[in-house]
Write a structure and sequence with these properties.
Order of helices and strands: EHEHEHEHEHEHHHEHH
Structural class: alpha/beta
Number of strands: 7
Strand order of the largest sheet: 3-2-1-4-5-6-7
Helix content: 40-55%
Largest sheet: 7 strands, parallel
Shape: globular
Oligomer: single chain
Distance between the termini: 53 Å
Radius of gyration: 18 Å
């Protein structure tokens, strides 16, 4: 029986960094399943890893991709030791001026797909398996001009913490990772229309390796939430201490 790790969004950013981290530090993993749309990037990543890999190329917004993963789990003799849900995207801007397909797509990929993957993978997990779901500091408070994205990540945070409680008796632990701005391709998509930009991102930007290192540490400490940087830890505290109306007014001013 193989012990596997499944990493979505593995072609870039945080997902790619998780693949490297698992490859470098986890000898108990026999094979890493890399999931993303871009086949050429997955092939390039696979060549850099020591572990055996399985490449699953497809758009996770399409239910057929998750169904393929489900069928592979049924047909192969594996245990899922780690599930990293890193696929997702956000769009900055006024909700009413956004494209309907993209607004709905955030809900579909960030929430439905993540939930579906947890559902199909948990039966193949055993004691001390881990699920790491990438949420965001945007989950801490509603964010005008980032309304749908923040709402989807609020779901991820709430779902992950509740699921962690449900699965504790089975020895399966779930951690929601809540970074602030990360130096990835995320903002190439989020700011692609040029109507809004996050002005504070340069001051609070961190790197994927910092997020991943902290996430793995917190996951193995059995924490249900991981907040990677001091800036975001302070933001989390502020969101618990001050009225959300005030926080929303401040964050709105950051989107220029």
């Amino acid at each position: 029986m193989k012990n596997i790790a499944i990493v979505t969004g593995a072609s870039s950013g945080i997902g790619k960094e998780f693949a490297f981290a698992i490859d470098e530090s986890m000898e108990s993993i026999d094979e890493i399943w890399l999931v993303a749309r871009r086949k050429d990037r997955l092939e390039a990543l696979s060549e850099k890893l020591v572990h055996e890999t399985k490449l699953i190329c497809g758009d996770l917004s399409n239910k057929n991709t998750v169904n393929r993963i489900s069928q592979l789990l049924k047909s192969e003799n594996v245990k899922v030791r780690m599930l990293i849900n890193a696929a997702g995207y956000g769009i900055l801007g006024d909700f009413t001026k956004g494209e309907r397909k993209e607004e709905y797509g955030m809900v579909d990929l960030n929430d439905r797909t993540l939930t579906d993957l947890c559902y199909v993978c948990i039966p193949y997990m055993k004691k001390n398996s881990r699920i790491i779901n990438i949420a965001s500091s945007a989950a801490f408070v509603p964010q005008p001009m980032f309304a749908v994205y923040a709402a989807t990540k609020s779901y991820v945070l709430s779902f992950s913490r509740a699921l962690n409680m449900e699965l504790k008796d089975k020895g399966i632990y779930v951690t929601a990772v809540c970074p602030g701005p990360v130096r990835t391709e995320f903002f190439d998509v989020a700011e692609k229309y040029g109507t809004r930009k996050m002005s504070i991102k340069k001051a609070t930007m961190t790197s994927p390796d910092v997020v991943v290192k902290e996430a793995l540490k917190d996951s193995f400490a059995k924490k249900d939430i991981s907040i990677p940087t001091t800036w975001m830890k302070l933001f989390y505290v502020a969101c618990r201490l001050f009225p959300h109306r005030l926080i929303m007014a401040i964050t709105s001013a950051m989107y220029k």
